[in-house]
Amino acid sequence: MAPPNSSAVKSRFLLKDIVLERTDTLIEYWKSLNVTELWAAGIPASRNSLSLTRISPRRWAMSGSIELSAEGDGLVFILKSEGGDDIGFVHLDKLDIRASKTEFEEKISKQVEMYDAHVHLTMSFKIVEKLLKSRFLLKDIVLERIDTMNESGKPLKVTELWVSGTPASPNGKCLSLTRVSARRWERVGSIELPAEGDGLVCIVKSEEGDDVGFVHLDSVEMRAFEADSKRSFKKDLQMCDAQIHMTVSCEIVEVPFDSIQEASDLATELTARGIMLRHRFKRTGNFADVAEAISVQQRAVALTPAGDPLLPGRLSDLGNSFTSRFQWTGSLSDIAQAISNQQKAVTLTHEGDIGLPDRLNNLALAFLIRHERTGDLSDISKAIPVIQQVVGLTPANHPNLPLFLANLGGAFSTRFERTGDPADVAKCILARQKAVELTPEGHENMPTLLMNLGNAFRLRFEQSANLSDISEAISAHMKAVDLLREDHHDMPSILTALGNSCSSRFDRTREPTVLAVSISALQKSVQLTPANHPDLPDRLINLGVSLMRRFELAGELADIEEAVSAQTRAIALTPENMLHATMLNNLAVSLMRRFGRTGNVSDVVKAEKAHQKAVELTPEGHENLPSLLTNVANSWRVRFDHSHNLGDMEKCISNYKSAATCTVGSSLIKLEAAQNWATLLNTHFPKSPQVLPAFDTTLGYVSLLAGLEQTVHGRYIWLQSVPGLALSAAAAACSLDRPDKALEFLEQGRCLVWGQLNNLRTPLDEIRSIDSNLADRIADISKRLENAASSRETTHTTMSLSEKIALEDESHSHLKLAQQWDELLKTARAIPGFENFLQPLPSSALLRHLPASGPIVVINVDERRCDVISLLAGVDEPLHIPLPNFSLDKAKKYRADLKILLRSGRFRAREEDASMVLGGEAAARPIRPVNRARRDGDIVHGVLCGLWNDVVKPILDALGFSRDPTSTEVLPRIWWCPTGAMSFLPLHAAGIYTGSKSESILDYAVSSYTPTVTAISNRVRNHRAIDKSVSGLFLTSQPNAPGATSIPGTTQEAQSIQSLAVENGARVLKLEGSDVTAGDCLKHMENFSSVHLACHASQDAADPLQSRFLLHKGSLNLATILQSNLKNADLAFLSACQTSTGEEKLSDEAVHLAAGMLAAGYRRVVATMWSIGDQPAQEVANSFYKYLWSHREGDSDGGFDGTLSAYALHHAVQQLRHRLDNSESSLLTWVPYVHFGY
């Protein structure tokens, strides 16, 4: 049989032929030496004193050899004289000795350090490496009682022998004993004697588990005994009870490693034990288990020959144990060992080996875990492609695929936390969803997979603030909790995840019940976590954060006391080298909250120290820096609230600025910092030159966070959380006499979503003339982005997992489109002359393309001030008109008064039957009379009069508008661009309608509205003629849409308009009721430049693209209209209710059907602010179209032109107005009609 491979056996090093020789001369020093003994320290044997033989007066020798210990630094020899005195010493380094073994044919000499400087000695020896080709076993162990029962009077119940030091279990193993008689116990089988170390310690245990006695069995002594004798080895036990005497005896057998198989069997046994110990360590946290696991696995690797197919797996297992120990100790040498072993394992694994995916996975995890400790991004960069390779190598039905997908998700999650790239968190969610989907119900890994999935949704929520994400996170975490027993070792982790998700939701929604769930989960997590567990500090920190939030909500001092206590304890439990900035940062925040309540200055001192330490621990460019700086700023803000010292406020603002201008970190956190920077600077230092840059930065983050990668619905939901920012910025600019900058702020920060849509539809003629390929790519991506934004459904918790995964796939594709769009814009802006391509236009550019027929009037209403910015063609600068007599409070009051009035009279209802009578004629649209208590009131008069006196008349005066009832000249036009609360007020009807001095805006100008200045400027700049082939009017009436009240007047309205069209030779198509489907309607809208919709409308303010027109056969929503090709769209007359009403929470986003139709491509839109009467609707429509056809220029060739639509509506409304009186109900009849667009 072949000898064992050298890698499967161990070796020991021997020093032999030791000689001491005197090298000085007796002439130099007359004293002779009597060396008799060599005392050695560091050898494995128990005897340290070695006798020397005197060969001559100058030479001494020692027979035999000395073994070099496997432990320690080496050997120390002390020379002894005949009288026992020390003469000199020499130290032999272990590494030097082992390195010299290849030269053992030559003797090695070392100089002896002598205590008598006149005497010189050298020590020489040879080094021999001896292979241990055998192992020693203790067989047939017998314990025997040798006292008499009469001496002690105590019977013994011995059941166990606990043995420490065996190669398989160096930290201890319990062996059961068999009772042969009342005085004898035996253990059948064998125990291996260690090749290294001091030997074995055996402790005898009683039935109750008490120690009875112990004995130390020396390895060298027992090997020597085996070599010298065939007798049984016997030794007395040291007994706990001095009256009892026992011996232990055994056979000592040397067993040669005479086959590779035997070494392999031992390695297999050691490997299995190591894995068991590591798993037990994870379960119990007993550090001794992981230490022993590493020890036995190292021995298993050493026993495994090179080329053995089992070696890669054993190296990987050893790496896993080092990883586990690193997670407990944080020692970088452990994780370095882990990575080294995993890399060797992967290198030694052949391609196609079924174990390769597992080993690659283990390597990637080691990289990720090291990154968590060091923050080195290169480790993530190494890990992600490795795990992607793992997933690619694993069959779809493989049971480990969910685990690999989960780990891939973890890698993307880790990188996202560092870089903030939304693509990474999207990939993370998708991978983790697939992992959950592939895992069978009831699988032990399901709770952990759900926890990780929930964590990913929470991460994305903290970036995007999309509430559906945090709902998914909490749902997943709750399912995970429900699947586990309370005593399961993963329960604290999952409870922590649930608590953190609820805390994140509370930060956004301020729901007390959610915060209560968070605190309960985190408290339970802390209770279930062992005192020595490495995750306990982080769990205490999280609990402290939620308690602090409750203190902020309810003001209970006990909550902030408990928060500080928990976070202080967390830091005390954390080793100095494991402290991280987040822990210190959170403690500092809690301390400052407590200071804000108690005024205890010591809290400020502690908080400053914690913040300073946190900053020191945070490297430049770290993703948490904005959060840390924000909290530092918050602390200075609390100090200012107590001190009123502007120096404290300056430090507060400085830190907010630093946070806002960081190049890394969460955009959401940086937006919060920028808001505070701008607001506080404007409040305390309003003349600072930094005010405008601060607001610029803030609005930049708003645009970024409402990006094209989100659905339109998602963007609107997010924008509700940052209302009025552009208005505050504009007010600040006006106070600094910068109306140009105020205009830019309003254009940049309002109507974001419609602006994005307009950008996607921008004509590309100029780009195409330079780079047609680039223009085609921009056109393609813009169309796909537009479709994705309007068609992608939002996930909700009731969906099946497969549906959620499909939507997540769509979301990821949408995100990639947005990233491609950004790259295309960078390419386009690199072309000379296109540096500002699709950038918000500067004021100077807006002023170059204004309508000649009248001014655009932007009205900004803010808490601090109200201003008008008027733009006139041919004027190089905006005209700034302050409105000192108007205020935001007035605007809100007018809006509230009208809202109450309209609701009480059902002017916003669509379902009830009509019963209003105007001028003796029955009305059939959903409109009801104002109740009698309010009919004689003056709400509408008051609103219109207030708007006239405080807003509209001062503007007209500043612009030089005059009233001349006798003039036959065409009235000038005026485009109103109101902001905020002004968006809901009827500026176009402002006036005094009672008394002898009645006058109104209708006497001075023809009013239109525009959502933004850019909307009109773009029309002027990109004016195109309507294609004559589609010029015409499509009409439809829908009097009986399912679920809506009957509006029979629409039928007569459409018939009358068709008759007028035919009389005037216009191209017209009328379809009624069930004659047209939504699809048909859209097709006809593409084939006719103008459309008249006489029907019910339903406005969805939460998701404006779902606002719709109700037909007999289905409905036509705005999203569908937007996706169609309406490049020749001209006029849309929306003879329906509330088509320009808007939504208070999104007052600056123009979320109504009128603005939506402008975005779809229509140049002008007639709409209504509230419900309209059936008969007046017919009158207005007929008058409107009669005016258009009677004022057309030249031969229309059967076409239809809506250019004069604003004048036509003005004329039609005036006709209705003059037919009615000036009562409130009469005003409510004509005031709702509005004109939008060019």
TrEMBL record:
<protein>
    <recommendedName>
        <fullName>CHAT domain-containing protein</fullName>
    </recommendedName>
</protein>
<feature type="domain" description="CHAT">
    <location>
        <begin position="947"/>
        <end position="1237"/>
    </location>
</feature>
<dbReference type="InterPro" id="IPR011990">
    <property type="entry name" value="TPR-like_helical_dom_sf"/>
</dbReference>
<dbReference type="InterPro" id="IPR024983">
    <property type="entry name" value="CHAT_dom"/>
</dbReference>
<dbReference type="Pfam" id="PF12770">
    <property type="entry name" value="CHAT"/>
</dbReference>
